[in-house]
Write a structure and sequence with these properties.
Layout (H helix, E strand, L loop, with lengths): L14 H9 L6 H5 L5 E4 L14 E8 L4 E6 L2 E10 L2 E8 L4 H4 L5 E10 L4 E10 L9 E4 L8 H15 L9 H6 L5 H9 L4 H32 L12 H4 L8 H15 L5 E6 L5 H14 L3 E5 L3 H15 L6 E4 L5 H13 L4 E4 L13 E6 L7 H8 L6 E6 L5 H7 L4 E5 L10 E5 L4 H13 L3 E5 L15 H7 L5 H5 L6 H17 L3 H12 L5 E4 L5 H12 L5 E4 L12 E6 L7 H8 L10 E5 L6 H12 L3 H17 L19 H17 L9 H16 L1
Parallel strand pairs: 5-7, 9-14, 9-15, 10-12, 10-13, 11-12, 13-14, 16-21, 17-19, 17-20, 18-19, 20-21
Antiparallel strand pairs: 1-8, 2-4, 2-6, 3-4, 4-5, 6-7
Helix pairs in contact: 4-6, 6-7, 7-24, 7-25, 9-10, 10-11, 22-23
Length: 726
């Protein structure tokens, strides 16, 4: 029996060097390699006559070489290799760059298959950098070829060879992961055939059948794992909070009225808290919808019922802001709130932890500091995690383990389409605040190019003269070093609409000159992203020398960061230049303009979060997205969507559509599952049907203990282990 967990380096053609490159793609084992699925395919199976080819198309031509291979050195690092090919309908010149070995591989008078891109001049056809095979000995042509997500120095050929060898290793072995009855009842292919056809499809229909089976398995395992997580929490005896403690006591003390959506959510939370089952509720609400006040009212109920509350936020800025809001509303009710951060001094930290253990602190607000061993609660009853996608399942588990099955409220302003949320968060009940407070004005959004810069600056000055304040957000801190929140080089390439250098280098038909040019271009693009410090200098010294300008970014010392934010809040700073460190939760009602430099380098969800930093007060607010006129079509589409809607859920749908689930549910959003092959935008119908299959299996065999479900039991255990390790 082949060991699927064996190190990938022992696959034929891999070895230690290639294994380390595969490790960069999270491929460590034979199984990882088998389940590293192509991102797209090139159909090289159908040949075309030379007379029928179209300018710009990628095509396979079967033709005879009718000239000698000619090599011309045009400069030090540039060699051009040319030959002419002919079929019954016409002739075509074939050109390669810096691939002198071609001369030994191509013989005049022989028949070959060439696959590459056609360029049509006036009286001339050319194919550049094609892959080719001798006719009748096809390896790289004459079939549907997989294209894999790749990395620098690892060619498509190397990945294909490794996958091919991996498939040979498991051929004839029993590697099936799904029970026989599932395959039969839902008309699914076996795993052996599915893996072969997803990597090297014999035709389109077989590839689709293979994909159906693999997507079905991935979604089914996720659903069963989520149902198991939910089932485990339902088995526990939870805290039954007092019915005599009325949330309305706090509501009546507020200087504003709650929205109907907030009241509905509070009713759901109240019912959960008064039941003896532990609450596990996800609270979704768009930027500025009032999730924090819901958590404050819930905390009141917990404390007045005799319990303590933990509030965990992803950043010190957000935790500090929560602390101020909780204190303002809850201290009049004699509820003691305290703040603990990584930057809290040891002496103060010790004092806080002692008071917490003695029960002298009712509500403790903090960042990841709450997870440390020395933070011990006397009687923890409610845990609130804000911006859930910033925390992993294990972190959520660590904080809840500080109490005896406390109620859990998970909050996020990262909207997920409702149908998706209901399925993805199968272990949580879901509440949605789907309306904004009545005094909130729509944030006017404009996408502009560089030629509008003067008008934008005049607009900034006008708003500041009227007493308002302005945010300016940019992607990088320094040219040489990315900030925690900024984009890495490959993301920069992607944002500016270039194919990444990695992808280009691993396509057999790209020439060395193009690669070098792309590297230079990528370097220019990166250098063009003005550092926050540089932008601060530009705004301070060149554009607005008479105004108060300051900057804040991720790598500043927490104390410095807090001081700058405090000054901005107090109106002592007119323009705050920042990285995306201010993306989440910062609340300055007087700030009415958000300018995003190089907006085409940001994703939709992030732009929406940034826009949500303004429009938090009584004043009309504006978001100005400055983008390059050279931006990619996808980036321009993002700008258009941002101008058309302020609805986070609509934006989430569009984001999912534009980026696909790979990035939408990427590693940055640890709370969400990652998929190797499923695409939740495309596979929504299957996701819904798989959910009903999972519910049926769970109702008939809770815990998957029956013999027929042992394969599913194994898959679910692996999935849960993987989720917890995040």
């Amino acid at each position: 029996m082949v060991d699927l967990k064996q190190n990938v380096q022992y696959v034929k053609s891999v070895g230690p060097t290639k294994a380390s490159l595969l490790n960069n793609l999270n491929i460590y084992t034979l199984n990882d390699l088998l389940t590293y699925f192509p991102r797209e395919y090139e159909d090289r199976s159908k040949t075309k006559n030379i007379a029928d080819v179209i300018d710009g198309e990628e095509v396979t031509i079967q033709a005879r070489v009718i000239s000698e291979v000619n090599i011309t050195r045009i400069r030090k690092n540039m060699v051009i290799i040319k030959t002419v090919i002919e079929d019954d309908t016409g002739r075509c010149t074939v050109t390669w760059f810096n691939q002198t070995y071609i001369k030994q591989r191509i013989k005049r008078g022989e028949m070959y298959r060439f696959f590459g891109k056609i360029t049509r001049e006036v009286n001339h056809l050319e194919m550049r950098n094609p892959v080719f095979d001798e006719a009748g000995k096809e390896k790289n042509t004459g079939k549907i070829m997989p294209i894999y997500p790749s990395t620098y120095k690892l060619s498509q050929t190397a990945i294909r060879q490794a996958v091919e060898n991996a498939l040979l290793m498991v051929k004839g072995e029993d590697i099936e992961t799904l029970p026989e009855y599932i395959l039969k009842n839902y008309n699914l292919e076996d795993l052996q055939k599915s893996l072969q056809e997803i990597h090297f499809p014999s035709n389109i229909e077989n590839r689709l059948s293979a994909r159906k089976r693999l997507v079905f398995e991935e979604l089914l395992v996720m659903q069963l794992a989520l149902l198991e997580l939910k089932g485990k929490t339902e088995d526990y005896e939870g805290i039954k909070f007092s019915k005599d403690v009325k949330m309305s006591d706090v509501m009546n003390s507020l200087p504003f009225k709650l929205t109907k959506a907030q009241l509905k959510v509070l009713e759901e939370i109240d019912n959960d808290m008064e039941s003896n089952k532990p609450m596990n509720r996800l609270l979704q609400g768009d930027v500025g919808s009032g999730k924090t006040v819901v958590s404050i009212i819930s905390a009141y109920k917990a404390v007045k019922s005799g319990f303590q509350v933990a509030i965990m936020a992803p950043t010190a800025i957000l935790a500090t802001q929560h602390f101020e809001e909780f204190k303002k509303i809850l201290e009049p009710f004699n509820i003691k709130c305290e703040l603990i951060l990584g930057a809290t001094k040891p002496k103060q930290k010790l004092e806080i932890t002692e008071k917490l253990a003695n029960g002298e602190i009712d509500v403790l607000i903090g960042t990841h500091s709450l997870l440390t061993e020395n933070v011990v609660f006397k009687n923890l009853g409610l845990v609130v995690t804000d911006e859930q996608h910033r925390f992993g399942v294990r972190q959520r588990e660590t904080i809840t383990n500080k109490g005896n099955h406390p109620d859990v409220l998970v909050m996020t302003a990262t909207p997920i389409p409702r149908t998706l949320a209901l399925i993805l968060y199968g272990d949580l009940d879901i509440s949605i605040i789907d309306e904004l407070p009545p005094n909130r004005k729509k944030i006017e959004t404009y996408a502009v190019t560089k030629r509008m810069e003067e008008r934008v600056n005049n607009f900034i000055r006008k708003n500041i003269e009227e007493g308002r304040q302005v945010y300016v957000v940019c992607p990088l801190v320094e040219d040489k070093e990315d900030d925690d929140e900024s984009l890495k080089e490959e993301k920069i390439n992607e944002r500016v609409g270039l194919k990444s250098i990695e992808q280009k280098e691993n396509t057999e038909r790209i020439n060395q000159l193009e690669i070098e040019e792309m590297k230079i271009e990528a370097f220019k693009q990166k250098a063009d992203l003005k550092a926050v410090k540089e932008w601060t200098e530009i705004y301070q010294k060149q554009i607005f020398p008479d105004l108060r300008v300051a900057c804040v970014y991720g790598k500043m010392k927490p104390k410095e960061k807090e001081e700058v934010m405090e000054k901005f809040k107090n109106g002592e700073i007119d323009i705050l230049i920042s990285t995306t460190v201010i993306e989440v939760g910062v609340n300055v009602p007087n700030a009415s303009v958000m300018v995003v430099e190089n907006a085409d380098r940001f994703g939709l969800a992030q732009l929406h979060q940034l826009r949500g930093r303004v429009g938090r007060g009584e004043y009309q607010s504006y978001c100005i997205l400055k983008y390059s006129s050279q931006a990619s079509q996808v980036a321009k589409e993002r700008m258009k969507i941002m101008q058309e809607t302020n609805d986070g859920f609509v934006i989430a749908e569009k984001d999912l559509e534009l980026r696909g689930t790979g990035e939408f549910f990427g590693t940055k959003q640890h709370g969400l599952p990652e998929f190797k092959i499923a695409n939740l935008f495309v596979d929504m119908p299957m996701l819904k049907s798989v959910q009903s299959v999972a519910l049926k299996i769970e109702s008939e065999d809770r815990g998957l203990k029956q013999e027929k479900n042992q394969k599913l039991r194994k898959l679910v255990d692996e999935k849960l282990k993987q989720s917890i390790s995040l």
